[in-house]
Amino acid sequence: MSKIIISIDGYSSCGKSSTAKQVAEKLGYQYIDTGAMYRAVTLYFLQNHISLSNPREVAGALEKIEIEFRPNKEGKSDTFLNGLNVEAEIRKLYVADQVSEVAAIGEVRRAMVKQQQRMGRRKGFVLDGRDIGTVVFPDAELKIFMNADPLVRARRRQEELMEKGELIDFDDILENIRKRDIIDTTRAESPLRQAPDAYELDTTYMTLDEQVERVVLLADSVISLQLSASPDHDQKADG
Ligand code: DC
Fold it and tell me: 28: exposed, middle or buried (C-beta count within 10 Å: 0-12, 13-18, 19+)?
């Protein structure tokens, strides 16, 4: 069975990670949440009072950071920072508030991209982020670029946080989303861009099931195209 790499990039809170997780599950692929990696770095920087404007401090801190994904009891993947489960902590708003600034630092991006390329060097991966189809895996066989109305994204984010017991004002969430959009798209180091060969998916009026179905359908067609183009397939057809 031919395996591919699927990149899902786009703005925050468009449903990238929920879609990516379910697509990976349906295809039997592994999921890598690259945003979680930037969040884990941010948490480390906050806990250790690293000055973002001091390149030596940043480089020294990056050397001490080890990020892993380990499956939990529910079969989902949790983020570990230096051996500690930080999955819940990295989703909090105080981390979200700083993460775009941390993710804009070139040194941080280079370290994360290297790690992501190492993790996904075999095929059979779904990665979500901002630069997967443009920088991390520019040769990914299927690239998705997600977008949605900021008001819808803020409402989804608020519901997500509420499920975790965090009651946050809608306007604060909307402001956080707008601020992150600006930083993510205007930063000098690999800004958020749609790859020319990416499929655009506007999820404003889509349910999660519809998003998953669309990506799985696209993946199926890419995989069948690959299979029909492979030399093995020709041999079978000839024989
Ligand atoms: O997907 P997320 O909201 O968890 O991402 C958190 C932040 O990390 C987001 O503001 C942008 C940044 N990010 C990035 O710059 N590149 C990635 N590949 C993934 C996330």
Answer: exposed
